[in-house]
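pipeline/complex-builder :: batch 7 item 3
reading input block
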Amino acid sequence: MRLAFILSEIGSGIRRNLSMVTSVILVTFISLTFVGAAGLFQLQINQMKGYWYDRVQVTLYLCVDNSSETSCATGPVTEDQRAAIQAKLESEQFAPYVDTVTYESQDEALAHFRDQFANSPIVDSVTADQLPESFRVSLVDAEKYEVIDEAFSSEPGVDAVSDQRDFLEAIFRYMNWASVVALAIAGVMTFCAILLIATTIRLSAFSRRRETGIMRLVGASKAVIQLPFILEGVIAAVIGAVLASAALWGASRFVIDGWLANTFPQTAFISSQQVLILVPVLILLGAVLAGLSSLLTLRRYVKV
Amino acid sequence: MIRFDNVTKTYDSKSQPALDSVSLEVDRGEFVFLVGASGSGKSTFIRLVLKEDRATRGAVYVAGQNVANIPSWRVPRLRRGIGVVFQDFRLLPNKTVFANVAFAMQVIGRSRAVIRETVPDVLATVGLEGKNDRMPHELSGGEQQRVAIARAIVNRPGILLADEPTGNLDPTTSMGIMKVLDKINQNGTTVVMATHDDDIVDTMRKRVVELRGGSVVRDDAQGIYVGDAGAMAG
């Protein structure tokens, strides 16, 4: 009986206050969408880290004619130096770190270069002897890049040791920024949502002050008086959270599954399945925010 | 049933107290008129009994319990034992007569079956048989006050407080309301009625407690309103 009564009170509250309830739904929808977007960026970063760090290679570029490093003092790399470097890479000492070693000659480097820049006029002016020979080293553990760098950067015949991680880290930095911006927008919008929920509950309490006054007089408990208001806010926020989840899922389905994954097949993207992880988080967040802000409002505006 | 022990209530430290060292006892089943001009402390008395306000000094006992010792979560239980009626009826305009009375039972969790059984009985007690489905605006003032009384007694409180219940009604209608209140009193409910309707007080011949400037100046077992000019001026 009491439950049915509370439900009917909620219904009448929402009907009387429809425009405010709608705005609460929309504001929580937007704010939680941004919260979710920040979450998705983080998921994507983790995914890419996992994917790329397994495939990162360290490249040892060998000396060419005009290298300026001290390890290239003797000019272009010699047969002996190259053999020594390869032997060292394949030695017992580095076996725990090094997974595979591939040699790339100047001709192969040129072929790769031509592939990569096939549409650029620069291809015609580049010759094989301008490109360095290299050893492509894939590591057992990508994090142990430093070991190879220290051991080989001053080795005679090695011009430079380069790690693709620097490049990846720049990408991750940008993505991190994007998620921080999304989180900042989410913060502002969430603040708006809290204020709006508080105002809505205040209006709702005001428009029903006659009922609540009578409820107090006849000895209704605090829960019966306040619960309809709190649930009104919580229901609106949960609807907003469901909309936000649907929007994120839709966006990931069309943008990531439908477009990005096809356009960049070599990149690991999060799937729309992973978005579903966020749904309970968003709904809980919306409910807790609305519950707390209406509870605080009621303490001031509905005396019991 | 209600006992005031040297109760003082000050709303604002600079102004005169609304109640000044009032000691008063109302027994179970009594009918008491609380008379006095506006601002004499009648409404404050009612608010203190309901624990809407707390006494500045002294103690208020309701049904043997010092209300100052009732924790806030138990206050609803205190109020379930007290019915209240006001001058302005305070009905819910968008609910029918039946729903207005039923509301008081719904909010304390009575079952639908009990409500369906009790409400018509109570409406009959106040003389509103057959008006279940009327809306408040379709009723006369007297009928609206009867609905309010029905709502106040539907949960069978031991005490009925009435704050100027006839203030908005003409004399004939007022007498009808008094008959209803008297009947409720005959059934064992303690009734405390604040009023300044001299005709009613003089006709009923019940106990009269007169307040003036926050103090009890008279307590007659079968009193009249008093024609004394001093009382009117106070």
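note: Chain A has ten helices and four strands.
queue -> next item
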